[in-house]
Amino acid sequence: MNYEKLMKRAISLADQYKYTAKPNPVVGCIIIKDDKIISEGAHEKFGCNHAEVNAINSAKTKVGKSFESFGELTLICSLEPCNHSGKTGPCTEAIIKSGIKNVVIGALDPNPLVSGKGIESLKKNGISVTINVCSELVKEQNKFFFFKNTYGRPFITAKIASSIDGKSHIVGSKQTWITSKKSREDVQKLRASKDVILTGGNTVVNDNPMMNARVDFLTNQPKKILLSTKTNLNFDAPFFKDADYEIIKERDLDKVVSRFKNTDVTSILVEAGPKLINSFLNEGYVDKLIVYESTSKLGPNGVNWFKEDNAVEKLGFKLESSYKIESDTKKIYIK
Ligand SMILES: NC(=O)c1ccc[n+]([C@@H]2O[C@H](COP(=O)([O-])OP(=O)(O)OC[C@H]3O[C@@H](n4cnc5c(N)ncnc54)[C@H](OP(=O)(O)O)[C@@H]3O)[C@@H](O)[C@H]2O)c1
Q1: If we measure between CA atoms, which residue out of 301, 279, 292 comes closest to residue 169?
Q2: Residue 5: which of 123, 127, 92, 134 has the closest Cα?
Q3: Per the residue annotation, which of 40, 52, 271, 293 is the catalytic one?
Q4: I need a surface site. Which of 44, 90, 204, 308 has the fewest CB within 10 A?
């Protein structure tokens, strides 16, 4: 049987929950009898049921109606079922207990400690397993999760707003608005897609930002991390008002980044001024750079983002895409 079409359906099912499942990967599951869909499930919310369990529970309500026994069914799941107890029980156990005898998997779990273990456990229990169906799509969909498990650190995106003359802000000023309302709305969505937003002490003091994701859909708010050695921070400021925040006094970025190794965090958005952004760039800790460029100039009182021309290209970045948001241009650079 060609499972690709059904796997793609499981992948799109999973996609609906990318803002509420994070920092977990999104996973979709479909249970079929022959070519008929019996039930569907997804990992909808961090800490809640996994996709396989939701699909199995939904199928249980149809025994004796759409099918007689679970042995007649095939379970199609975008990511390898887990074989360990986390916030919920192992999915392999739920599959084995259900009596399903045929499982189709999109991609193997990238964590070397668990990869292949779920499959092994299913096979040991007499279940036939097919793997790597649309695995590249699953990896792309869960890019941050695969990155973290491959490189041992979160995927880091740096975002900057720049005037057409390459400036960040007016010297000595409080907040400088550079880009349009539409671009700033786009940034809210970008924030919602990340597990952490990280910034520096001067930005929090000068700009007085909230740095949360103000979006009109459900999202797990990113944790806010402030890198600062300041001792006179105003904790009544909006930055400290909501969600989870942490202040890290460390300046060594190797140490800052390695703190995330054994955490759930798979993605970080760095939103800061030229000093901190350049530190991240120069230390090789930026995987993607997003520039929102306006058509206006800040002129001689503006602070340059970079010391030299083509600094981004010299650091090995290439332009991946560039498009207009009203009069601004959003440029995305990758390595
Ligand atoms: N256009 C934009 O997209 C944008 C975005 C954000 C901010 N800004 C502007 O940028 C200005 C501030 O820029 P900035 O670069 O001076 O401040 P920043 O964004 O606060 O970054 C520098 C601060 O980060 C902390 N830091 C910790 N480790 C560091 C490291 N390894 N390298 C560099 N900094 C480290 C230090 O905080 P402590 O000194 O507290 O220890 C340092 O002063 C603001 O006035 C704001 O208007 C512009």
Answers
A1: 301
A2: 134
A3: 52
A4: 308
CA distances 122 to 53, 94, 105, 186, Å, are 15, 10, 12, 43
Q: How far apart are CA 210 and CA 197, in angstroms?
A: 11
Residue at 217: amino acid letter: F
Tell me the C-alpha to C-alpha distance, in Å, between residue 140 and each of 50, 106, 144, 145, 196: 20, 12, 9, 10, 20
Backbone angles phi and psi of 270, in degrees to 5: -95, 120
**Does ligand 1 have an atom closer than 6 angstroms to the CB of 272?**
yes
User: How distant is the alpha carbon of residue 125 from its chain centre?
Assistant: 34
- For residue 26, give the nearest of 158, 189, 181, 138 by alpha carbon: 138
Place of tokens 């001792």: 231
Question: Which of 168, 257, 304 to mutate for ligand 1's pocket (most ligand atoms within 8 Å of CB)?
Answer: 168
Would the CB of 160 count as within 6 Å of ligand 1?
Answer: yes
Q: Which residues contact 284 (CB under 8 A, 6 or more apart)?
A: none
Going by the DSSP 8-state scheme, the letter that residue 196 receives in this structure is: E
pLDDT for 83 equals 87
**Residue 243 confidence (pLDDT):** 66
Active site residue 52: yes
Which tens digits make up the pLDDT trace of 290-335? 999 999 999 999 999 999 999 999 999 999 999 999 999 999 999 9
**Count of CB atoms situated within 10 Å of the CB of 221:** 17
Counting from 1 in the atom list of ligand 1, the atom nearest the Cα of 159 is 3
142 Cα: distance to centroid of ligand 1 (angstroms): 30
CA distance 53 to 67: 18
Determine phi and psi for 311, rounding to 5 degrees.
-60, -40
Low-confidence ranges of the chain (pLDDT < 50): none
Ligand 1 center from residue 204 Cα (angstroms): 8
Q: Which atom number of ligand 1 is nearest to the Cα of residue 178?
A: 1
Q: Which atom of ligand 1 is nearest to the CA of 279?
A: 32
